[in-house]
Amino acid sequence: MGSAVTRTASGPDVFAPLRAVLEGVVDSGAVPGIVVATGTSEATRFLRGHGWAQVVPTREPMRAYTLFDLASLTKVVVTTSLVGILCAEGRIDMEGRLDAYLTDLVGDAKGAVTVHQLLTHTSGLPAWRPFYRHCATREQVRAAVLAEPLADTPGARRTYSDLGFVLLGEVLERVSGQRLAALARERLFRPLGMLDTGFVPPSGLAARAAATEVAAGHDLPKRGCVHDENAAAMGGVSGHAGLFSTASDLARFARMMLRGGRFEGRDIIPRPGYEALFVRDPSGPAGWCWRGWVGIGPEDAVARVFSTRAFGHTGFTGTSLWCDPARDAFVVCLTNAVHPSREGNRRISEVRMSVYESAVECLRRQSEPR
Fold it and tell me: What is the pLDDT of residues 87-101, one digit of tens each?
């Protein structure tokens, strides 16, 4: 049932503990299936799938190449990265006001919100609204987000907000003159060789996707179509959710991030833009979080695995990615925790932590002189 392991010169036994963790989280029922990739800036050292990509109405095995709905990993892989690229080109200013890019907001309190505040979730926007209940198109959702009043004073505190990243997606489209999916494909996925990554996967690729939730009133799970309802109402493409990818593609992205925005001799995120993303003020409302990326404070639980230089993010469907430049390590952990019900993601924090700890320890052991 398990997929192939990436074997290295050090031999397959180095990653035996990590393989056991994958088998354990599936056998315990914590998640139906899981795919993990881990490695360094130089190479992916381990890639394996275990468990089931779908359990209802029929069982289908998880593979190393299974496609996942990344949910909020869209925020960092696509939106944050593209902001960094356009920032390096002088087309976006981190301290630029929102009304400089979205002229619809002239006279609206949201117009004074900055790109920095959107990236750090300190904009004052509410966390979420069920726009999909009364919006059926991208234009209707966009109009509803633009009309949504602030729930707090900008810069006062951090409230993780999907709405802020919907607006960042709009900024990227206005500044670039391209739709978000095309911009991401041109500036990120093609240069990185992320051939299975994108929004609204075509039918052949969608058939490789891990199943997510069986929605109320439906007999079949969602598969190859976005789980997030607001992103679905936007046609599957948004700055906050909608991206699909594989562990191997995300490993390429992670290696680029560990290399300061470079991959195979090419600047993907030019250095000035990359550095602009990794600015933070632990004494401020965003705490240890970077721009777009979640950071780690000394008291955080994951600080026992990663350094305070690390950056990562999670997705509601059961996905996560962490990169640690201090340890030259990345961990991609993809699960279908919301299949067949979103109640299944209650143990996802436990699953992630066990994977992170084992992966980093296995990488450490592999690097030891023999």
Answer: 999 999 999 999 999
